[in-house]
Amino acid sequence: FCLNRFFEMFSCSCTTLCSLILTLLLTSSSASLQQPVDHVTVGFSAPFNWKPLTRFWSTAPRPGDAMELTGEGSWLIRASAALYEQVCPWWKPPAEWSDPFTNYISTVRLLSATRNATGDIVSGPGCTQMHWDLLKTRLNFTSLKLHPFVVWDNVPFCFVDHPVLGTYGQIAPPSNETQWGEFVHKVTKFFKDNYGQHNPSSWRHRVATEPNNKHGHWSGTQQQFLQHYDWTTHNVKRVFPNAKVGPGNVCTGCPPDNGVSWTQWMDIFVDHIVNGTNNATGKTGSPLDWLSLSVYANGVRHGMMGYDPQVGADMATVLRNMRNKLPPLMRGNVTLEFQEFGTLANEKHRVSGEPGAFGAAWTLAMYIRAGMEGGVSNMFHWGNTDRLDSRKGYYFLQGNAWVMANLELVLSQLNQPMVTVGHTHYTMGPRAGLNVTAAYMQEKGNQLSTTGDRFLLLSAFNVYRHKFRTQRITVNLPAGAPPVKHATKRCLTLENSVYDVILADLEDSHPSYLRYKDGLPYGLSRMLTEEGHIWLFQHETKYWDLFAKSLEETGLEWNGSIVMDTPSVCVLRLS
Fold this sequence. Notes:
Layout: H1 2-8, H2 14-26, E1 38-43, E2 51-52, E3 59-61, H3 64-67, E4 77-78, H4 82-87, E5 97-98, E6 104-107, E7 122-123, E8 129-130, H5 132-138, E9 147-152, E10 165-166, E11 169-170, H6 177-194, E12 204-207, H7 222-239, E13 245-247, E14 250-251, H8 262-275, E15 290-298, H9 310-323, H10 328-331, E16 335-345, H11 357-373, E17 378-381, E18 385-389, E19 394-397, H12 399-413, E20 418-425, E21 434-442, E22 454-462, E23 470-476, E24 487-492, H13 498-509, H14 524-527, H15 530-538, H16 540-549, E25 554-555, E26 561-565, E27 568-574
Parallel strand pairs: 1-23, 3-6, 6-9, 9-12, 12-13, 14-15, 15-16, 16-17
Antiparallel strand pairs: 2-20, 4-5, 7-8, 10-11, 18-19, 20-21, 21-22, 22-27, 23-26, 24-25, 24-27
């Protein structure tokens, strides 16, 4: 800009030129340095692949020791909280205490919650001493109309001759699978006898967590796992013949197990399901109701491999290909799932749930590419809120939950919504890393609806986090869609994402209140020092109001395009 102006004015008098240069210097922090608006188009190609919108975000894993707490001070939020009544009135908690936008609790470490036997639900010689009260305590959430997704992981110490301690407790297989099977039968019978009002026959049962994660969750061989899988599923089905069962989520970021990659591990498992001899029954084949992975974004990885939503699409493809190896009669009943999902670590090698606008944009892009387009029916999340002031019911939704809240809004407004998707992404040139992802939603039907509200969800972000650009995104709505006469929007950006704003405010005024000086947002407990928490509490009204406004609906002049900064996410209602 400066050079252009210089050559335009080259023939001017020295006085004029000096005046121009002085003006440019004085305004260098404003329009002269602003990046131009980038024009990007995203559309929906016919024939439109309409799919029902399902609540694939509605399961949250909770470890055994956390499950022992319900009510004040726990991971649950009171139904009367301002979060629900003021900010998200369209989502009605099912009970007095609830987990936002969650219906199912994945009960990881239900059987053995600590790194020693004190957290086990069974102990003693021969594993004969059952601690039913401890199990009941961990399942207290069932009284809150939350449904268990039963996880048979972390085999209790008494079953193992030579225990192995992994990251989260005992990870060796049982020494006697027959004895283990009788324990599974006994516990499943306990579910039937004590939780009849909660329909325990509908509970799903998972065998292990990341069974190819040698140091974190399963120290045994794959053949030992196949035996363990057969004995566990057989004894669940002795009590509930129609129970849904499946394997633990396969770790996609773990090193090969004895030279076997995670995809090869899945191949061997699927072959056992179809052609192997069931170790518990002696018959050919084993039951299977899902295939699942752990899928995390990892900013430590270089370039686009860290946060590229194409990874979600690729993982969905792997699962579909694995399912296609099953017999047709079995294939139709097997779901595809990410039973651990989220961001794992940022580019500074620090654990981060990416609670700001960047995380929201990434989450929506993954929901669209893997869930709405790729056919993944469940994507478990590891929590989505921060407590600001529980006395007033003040809780912040993290970026992923901001997206969940708006998807719940769509479900509350549309009758059996159907969705079709579109996306644009760049791998080379000045736009490298830019992803624009869109989902168009209407009421039930395989034809374009010509009446009623429709919703358009848009995610715009660059996988190289600090490449900020303003995008004018032109959206080519599905051909034949009715004209838009009225539009509103809800958007989450760096300017109204409460985590990004707190970070920016403290960087300017009190940088010592931040635990890390890396310019990246974190959940409140990780981001703030003790002094930072005190400061935030003193300014809680300001940030609560900012958060609440991020979910307010405002008018939009729709002419086929919208200006969005990266990163941001917008939810448009079109009439």
